[in-house]
Design a protein that fits this description.
With 410 residues, this protein is an alpha/beta fold. The chain has two domains: 239 residues, Rossmann fold; 155 residues, Rossmann fold (3-Layer(aba) Sandwich), CATH 3.40.50. It is built from 15 helices and 13 strands. It has a seven-stranded parallel beta sheet with strand order 3-2-1-4-5-6-7, with helices on both faces. Strand 4, helix 5 and strand 5 form a beta-alpha-beta unit. The longest helix has 19 residues. The termini are close together. 46% of the residues are buried.
Length: 410
């Protein structure tokens, strides 16, 4: 038996659920232990029956907001100070030793890039392909500038070149990672890509997302991994599905914001549809939504196939993959380049439409939903994508890679 330590960012719903799926797929002979700093979605880990170690220091709401803006490229200021990074590395190293972990698995918990290497434990990163080193290096246009004309394409190439330089060469990583890494006896992390690359990078994507790309030795495709939240389906979903009006799913994950929820809901309120919206965590008590928008907490979205006719999503990989696996055509409004990539891949498959976040509160969103509901070709494409997903199990593939590494080292 070996211990596998999972370190998701516990205020990121997609990361928490992705790690839970991989932990479930491990051979029962192994022991899964989770480490996390923030409480937001930690209950999903304990609800799934896993050993969870709540750890300090956690980040304040302001620090988390700043980190989200940093992750989305909206600011160069990071809350990851020397004190915070050093304390987290110390805590992670102590837990690795205490549990005698044979592997560390992360979502985007960047301090593990230092702690796992300092303890000489293999580090596994279950990650989307977008914004990885090979994707940035080999993509001509990353969609930094949206538009279809020559000028937009030219500007996008320039922006892509600038991002490539910033990612791979410029010392733009928070300086704390260089200093703390050096203090822990590992090579300093100075570039952005150094914060996004583990010993084993497990790409949670479909085969068509890698067409035309060459993967370095440390990268391999495992396939989609998305949430299978074990909670009852709210009765309102079945009630709405039985009505004559189409049912639309509004899923904005954990990286959107209250303004986007209200904007999207206002447009969906103009349509002759019903809406099921697990967005309760974004709203205030005094927020008024249209009467056809029914708000819930988290629900088992992977079971919405056959109940929901269309979806409106923010573009996070978890929500996109859940819709794909359920055969639901969707509108995606990516908030940052990785999410834009996720949506664009589905646009190419024919099961999605892409809008910008600024269009969430405009008639463009209502028009896009009307098209989803009326276009038979999009429903056919969504069914074709669903069938392709049925043959994938990214969690099981990830578990096998981790177990093979453990066996080899043993």
């Amino acid at each position: 038996m070996a211990t596998v330590l999972f370190c998701p960012v516990t205020f990121n719903l997609a990361e928490v659920t992705r790690m839970i799926e991989v932990a479930r797929a491990l051979d029962p002979a192994h022991r899964a232990v989770f480490l996390g700093y923030e409480p937001d979605f930690a209950h999903l880990i304990t609800d799934a029956g896993f050993d969870y170690r709540s750890t300090e220091p956690s980040m304040s709401a302001a620090q988390r907001e700043q980190l989200m803006r940093f992750d989305q490229g909206k600011t160069l200021r990071s809350p990851l100070t020397d004190q915070l990074v050093s304390a987290r590395v110390d805590a992670e190293r102590a837990l690795i030793r205490r549990t005698e972990a044979a592997a560390v698995v992360i979502g985007s918990n960047v301090t593990s890039m230092i702690s796992a290497r300092a303890e000489k434990v293999p580090l596994f990163y279950a990650v989307p392909f977008a914004l990885t080193r090979p994707q940035v290096a080999q993509t001509v246009r990353l969609g930094m500038v949206r538009g279809r004309g020559r000028i937009a394409h030219a500007l996008d190439r320039v922006a892509t070149s600038a991002l490539r330089l910033a990612y791979n060469r410029l010392p733009l990583a928070p300086r704390a990672f260089g200093r703390v890494a050096k203090a822990n006896g590992v090579p300093p992390l100075t570039t952005v890509v150094s914060l996004l690359e583990a010993d084993h990078n497990l790409l949670t994507v479909m085969p068509w997302e890698l067409e035309g790309y060459t993967l370095p030795a440390a990268y391999q495709r495992v396939g989609p991994i998305f949430a299978h939240i074990d909670v009852p389906m709210p009765p309102i979903v079945a009630e709405l599905a039985e009505r004559s009006e189409p049912l639309v799913y509004l899923g904005l994950g954990s990286s959107a914001n209250r303004e986007m929820v209200l904007a999207a809901a206002s447009q969906l309120g103009t349509l002759p549809v019903n809406v099921i919206a697990p967005v309760q965590h974004y709203l205030r008590d005094d927020d008024a939504l249209p009467p056809n928008v029914h708000v819930t907490g988290l629900l088992p979205a992977h079971r919405l196939g056959g109940l929901v006719d269309a979806a409106v999503l923010h573009g996070g990989q978890g929500t996109v993959q859940t819709a794909c696996a359920a055969g639901i055509p969707f509108v995606g409004m990516g908030l940052q380049p990785e999410q834009v990539w996720n949506v664009d891949q589905c646009v190419r498959q024919g099961n999605a439409l892409a809008l910008t976040p600024k269009q969430a509160g405009t008639p463009a969103l209502a028009d896009a939903v009307r098209r989803l509901l009326a276009d038979e070709g999009m429903r056919t494409a969504a069914e074709r994508v669903r069938a392709a997903y049925a043959g994938e199990d990214g969690a099981a593939a990830s578990a096998r890679v981790i177990e093979k590494s453990i066996a080899t080292r043993a």
